[in-house]
Specification:
homopentamer; mainly alpha; 2 domains; MotA-like (chains A, B, C, D, E); cell membrane (chains A, B, C, D, E); transmembrane helix (chains A, B, C, D, E); Flag_MotA_CS (chains A, B, C, D, E)
């Protein structure tokens, strides 16, 4: 569960509501046509911009931000070192039994190829291509949010323009000018809040998540290549530990 | 037929119309000079910015978005594996009969060179250059839309400035100020809607389409090189299957 | 003669004029101080931003857009194939007579080096450096226009600010407020039209032109290297034909 | 202690305060709801955009700007030359005693590997990966500030929109329009000052700091590789001195 | 002396002054608090963004734009060809006497290493690193101006917001609204002029200057490597002449 995102969204909406309530009731900021033009316009533009399958994947992608659970880098390295030790002692074939227990599909596939005696170069090529593909899939996810982050304010402005034009065309009753203009501006408000409290931060978080996953895949990639090449487990551990970062194990370096 | 684009455009226009109709009639948002300056100005600027042939290709490029039909990655791989098997059994010459039946010009040309005994390096060089050229042609397509997406709001603003200047120069009759300003703002509205509901999303979709086509060409490229080199069909399949992605065949990995 | 650019500029100005005339006379949109601050400011800023020689080259660069005449890719390839055939039959020295008739300085220089027996690596190095230099010169051209495209609206706004400050400081006679503000806004109008109808599209076109010229130079480069290496003319033609693109010779691929 | 940053922040706030005081009291520019929406919204959006650990590191990262103390490039080079001389005379093992005294963890680890007889290629790989990781950690720091620099003005505008809508909905008492609008604009003021006097400059400084640290790590990297390879200390010094820059030792070059 | 920059600044200020004088006196556009907030705020933000030493170097960097004097490319090549000829006839040691007369530190250092018999690879490595460092120093210079070009309009807006808030809070006397608002807008005017007539063009010019210097350093680099390798002076001249460009020696190519 990604606590930061949930705290962020809840507190963000909270700050906006409190700010509103200090000056007026909430009702002033609810306007159905405004919601319709911003949400509808953003969705429509996004559907034109992306294939249907990518667009529909946004629910899955969003869930991922909140339910995201990534294996710890330490555990991945420990697991690879263990496999490496086993392979060193019992030969590459001895790790076959571990494959079934490996929950990570990327690692399982790589180990299977290792056991099958596929050449290091071919294993590396397949693993790297797989990584590149996952990276591209992630990119679709965050560029989708990023596009929505630029469409939302644009349709907010479109809605405000509609409201202003309608108000300006009928200035007969001066007492209605203020409220009408207020309603017109709410659409810009919606677009801006949606973009800055949801779409843009989500795009940034997804990009960060992608980097973390790719780092883990890189560790697995280097580990399996090292195992396939019969490198000493200790040297492999030394090389992979670099990925733990200054924060994770400051005493080690 | 690209359903998402059609749903997007129809629903986008729908949302805007409904939003307008909730506040006034549609007539308020129709103004011929505004259409003229935005559409005319955008077309004029685009003609200056691109060669005539590129500019005229926009109809073809647009059709492509709506009629786009790309061969499935699975089918391409299956086809390549089949050819590879045939070549393995009957020799490279045995695939000559397939070339005539290959609808894809890129694959046909590559296979022809393979049958003709052109060296792998030369085949690879020609295929890669071809890919780079197609990529460049695609780029012209989406940068054209992208340019229009930035010209449209600019000419929207130019039109609004013209309207405002004309209104400000004649403030004699206060009752006409509102309607005149309304008309002036419609031009900005046109530019913004055209850019955000059409030009910018179309540019994004074309870029995505291009990536898909290039991926397919890359698969064909790798497949033909593999066939030319006499690699085992099973290994080739393993390598190409990576391109199917997590979504397409989750059970496989 | 680049028809698209001329049609674009003429029709763009036409659309703006017609839009203006539908609402008022043209005289309303003529204001000398506004022209002065936008044109003068843009030129001044450009002179600070670029060396004098680059700035003065803008006339030449602009002429190039309108008088641009590039050799057809087909003709370049046909010519190279012919030379290749000649060299194959009569030896490298036999092409010396063609050099004097070669109008293209880049090709002539490359052939001269070939005849002189300069090593392939040295010819390639010199030709590539030459290409990089031409690319850089082109870049100066379009970045100059691009800079002007961002300075013009900025000085448009500066002019509008001047007008507004002067108007606001003297609000004594309310009847002059409108006309004064109209005049102030004309400066923004000038900056925006100049940028979007001239500077920005010209920068885009020059960038496209540069790409075309560089493609032709690349073809010549690859052709001469192929001739120098004694590659078979037929293979060379196959390789160079890739540059013709899908549009030029669809039947061939 | 980073004097420039402290002078910058203090004088920046000073200039703003003096400008305000020349026109009114400070009280006019204090509004709690405005502070809440800008600060709160920016923090909320940043928490959604980054993992909790990264977000919490901002205090540490900020301290770093003010307390930043980097080892002088000259001292690093002198130290490496000394170690190189020692290793040349007494062999690689003779430098083991220095490792305990090396405060820099990166250098210590590298020397330890050298003494342990790890192959140059492996040392280089580990050191480069370490550098890449540190670079990524730094990047998180300055992209965090950079994101806050774009969220702050956005929430400033959101707050202003809230204020304007509330004001426009209640235009009954004309005498309150001015003050209410003043309050609404203060939120934009807060967002703009926070972004331009704090977040954006801090992001730039952190990026610069990162470059300095990476340069020092590069020097250590090259030095240790040179020592491991047994290169002459004098040549190593020549190579590393290049990093001192024109400003630091103009007479030397 | 860089004439273009001086003409640009003088004429730019001239155009602005004349435009102002056509509408009012200059006094209307002088306001000390506005100057203070724009200049002060820009300086403060720049001090936070850059180390003190970089910030203080701005005077030197600015002088460089106006006093800039770069050695002609033709002279550099002629000089290198002469040295190459000497080295060819009298051996590498014969050029030692020239080193003392070489005003260019970069060339002198490179020749000294050549005479000292340093290996080509090491000379190349040192020269390239030196070039990369100079490039980085130049980059600091123009990114400093570029940052100021974005801070100035931002603080212009901050100042305008201050003025507007103060005006809106005291609308008692309608006759002062105009003048007060005029004063508020002057700050935006200052920020915009400073950015577009000074900071941004200066950043562009410095970037161009950097490219020119780096080109000259590249020529020296290639020349010295050619001399060290004992390449024929004529071939070296051919290779270096490419850098002269189409404009400099059109007849040659």
């Amino acid at each position: 569960m990604d606590l930061a995102s949930i705290i962020g969204i809840v507190s963000g909406i909270g700050f906006i509501c409190v700010t509103i309530l200090l000056g007026s009731g909430m009702g002033l900021f609810w306007n159905l046509p405004s919601v319709m033009i911003v949400v509808g316009g953003t969705i429509a533009a996004t559907m034109i911009a992306y294939p249907l399958s990518d667009f529909l994947s946004i629910v899955k992608v969003t869930m991922k931000v909140f339910l995201f659970k990534i294996e710890k880098t330490e555990d991945i390295i420990a697991n690879l070192v263990e496999i490496s030790n086993k392979a060193r002692k019992g030969g590459l074939l001895s790790i076959e039994s571990d494959i079934a227990n490996t929950p990570d599909a990327y690692l399982a596939k790589a180990l299977q190829m290792t056991v099958d005696g596929v050449k290091t170069g071919d294993i590396a090529a397949i693993m790297q291509k797989k990584m590149a593909l996952i990276k591209k899939e992630h990119k679709t996810g965050y560029s989708l949010y990023s596009s929505m982050g630029s469409f939302a304010p644009a349709f907010g402005m479109v809605g405000t323009l509609i409201g202003l034009v309608q108000m300006l065309a009928n200035l007969d009753d001066p007492s209605t000018i203020g409220p009408k203009m207020a309603v017109a501006m709410i659409t810009t408000f919606y677009g801006s809040v949606m973009a800055n409290l949801f779409f843009i931060p989500m795009a940034t978080k997804l990009e960060g998540r992608s980097a973390e996953e790719i780092t883990n895949m890189t560790i697995i990639y280097e580990g399996v290549v090292s195992i396939r090449e019969g490198e000493h487990p200790r040297l492999m551990e030394d090389k992979l530990n670099v990925y733990l970062g200054a924060g994770a194990k400051p005493k080690e370096e």
